[in-house]
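Quick question, first post here. What does this chain look like in 3D?
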Amino acid sequence: MRITVFPHLTPLPGTRPNPYIHDLVQALSALPDVEVANPPHANPLLSLLPLRRQGDVVILNWFESIPDFRHGRLQALIAAGWFLLLKARGKKIVWMLHNKHPHDGKRQLLKRMLTSLAAHGSDLIVTHATEGLSLIRSRFPGEADKAHFLHHPTKDRLETPLPAPVTPQWDFLVWGHITAYKGILELLQFLSAHPQPWRVCIVGACSSPGLRKQLESFTIPNVECEFRALPFDELREYIRRTRFVLIPYHAASVLSSGILMDSLSFGARIVGPDTGSFRDYACEPRLKVYTFHGFDELNRILYAHADEPADPSAYRDFLTENDWPHYVRRLIALINR
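> Answer (accepted):
Ran it through. Tokens below.
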């Protein structure tokens, strides 16, 4: 089976490739009789060329977010034409529904067009949150039968043997690339207006000068901000020194989260919005995931669950069950149905 993965990007100098796409390509390529047909390219759409190298199956990730790309209006129209060409050539199309809708609110008409095209024209819809199935039933009821839930793939990064526990330095760690939809500005606004005794560490690169300036304008006791990328070897130690990883994302757009899965891979206890995968994993007995509707609920979570330890063997069982090799085998099984 030859598979085209979109987007398959060559990372820019000084940047890391999208970990989801990188791991997906690696896992698919490790399967017998599976070949990733399209090489990486600096431009998402150009990674789909030449057409003669298209796979029998095309996996679309964040297809509906193409209008946010550079020259997004033009690229959206080209993508729509390319999608119709795929259908005309009899390709099997898999739409990965990662979010309820694109995080950026601009160019809504084009995004709705691509979302509708993907929903109606795809042969298979895969989502990493059970809420995604409800979303498809609500917005595209005629397409509900082809929508399926698969856990967001992850990795087991738990240490063996486990290091001795340490006294927590922070109550909440917020990590990862900082963008508007991740709710960090709103978190700081809340802490500024409603002072709390929580010790909070925020670590992440911020590519928006305007957003960074807003974040830097806050001086809040017990809140540390480091505007830099956090390598995984450091992240492991940061997680050891915190009670919870806090993921303050906007619930309006998020379904699943790579930050959630990477944090779980290190054995972290998670606090996140009551939506999507966070809600799913709050019901998963092997994990310590807690959800909130507003930041005013964090006190309750902190004091009710601060001393509940995670069970490393239960975490490892979940992480192994949902690792990348298992995920791509389940995905291929759905494609072959």
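The first strand starts at residue 2 and ends at 6.
The chain has twelve helices and twelve strands.
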